[in-house]
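REQUEST
  id: r-88c1
  op: predict_structure
  target: Rho guanine nucleotide exchange factor 33
  payload:
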Amino acid sequence: NHYLMEAKRQNIALELLESERKYVINLSLILKIKATLQGPDVKRSTKERSFFPNSLRYLVQQHVDLLHALQERVLSWPRQGILGDIFLKLTNDENNFLDYYVAYLRDLPECISLIHVVILKEVEEEIKSDLYILFFHIVQRIPEYLIHLQNVLKFTEQEHPDYYLLLVCVQRLRVFISHYSLLFQCNEDLLIQKR
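RESPONSE
  id: r-88c1
  status: 200
  body:
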């Protein structure tokens, strides 16, 4: 039973790693689209940076770092693999990781309405709906971490060195999500409606 739990933990850790890899690819796709939209065709009168939340560039950097940390950890998974410390550091008050998500959620509604009004005429609809889907992934990412970490915790025995770390992370993410639940909701509704 003990070995089954460990095996299950490792699988969930691998799933988390895989989802982080996909997420980083999605983030870089947004930057690619951003680069194409900053081409000469888009009217200069609109400050193009305001189509995209300012926090994006920082988030990409943070998630590339997180991906490397997870790869190092998960691909050489020891007998008692630990994930909690990585997320503990990430959600720490000294780290601005969650603040940048708040900034993102605050900027997003304005960006969406700008994209809707201005880019509507300049770019194919397809790019716009791609963008909305990618924006949606970012809104969903923190709640996804909560689900992943809760799953790891489910298969972590109380004596395990990761147990307490995970417990704190899950608690922090829960508090964060409920604190900003209106912001999450408003952005999800907006994006679903636009799609």
